[in-house]
Specification:
mainly beta; about 0% helix; seven-stranded mixed sheet; globular; 11 strands; about 110 residues
Length: about 110
């Protein structure tokens, strides 16, 4: 059974940092592309960052230079380092494994 779970969210002030983690089990982790998505209230779920199984990386324009995606295949984990956070980064963040597997989501709130 494949399980995907996010951790590391919370409340942070504008300009602050958070590191999200995504842990996966029950799957050959290294064989899959991984991604972070986010969904703000009233909005659709949008791609934030992608890291492929060959370590190709891409970001949505709004987070370039502030967010860094990475993965550790030995630990079956993916990360999203978020710096210089803005109120508009507030959303539920989701980890996606391959095409079909999602985590339950974790809240990130950027507010003073």
């Amino acid at each position: 059974q494949v399980q995907v779970a996010e951790s590391g969210g919370g409340l942070v002030q504008p300009g602050g940092s958070l590191r999200l983690s995504c842990a996966a089990s029950g799957i050959i982790f290294r064989a899959y592309d991984m991604a972070w998505y986010r969904q703000a209230p009233g909005n659709q779920r949008d791609l934030v960052a992608l890291i492929t199984r060959t370590y190709m990386i891409s970001y949505v324009d709004s987070v370039k230079g502030r967010f860094t995606i990475s993965r550790d295949n030995a630990k079956n984990m993916m990360f999203l380092q978020m710096n210089s956070l803005k109120p508009e980064d507030t959303a539920i963040y989701y980890c996606k494994l391959g095409e079909h597997f999602w985590g339950q989501g974790i809240q990130v709130t950027v507010s003073s």
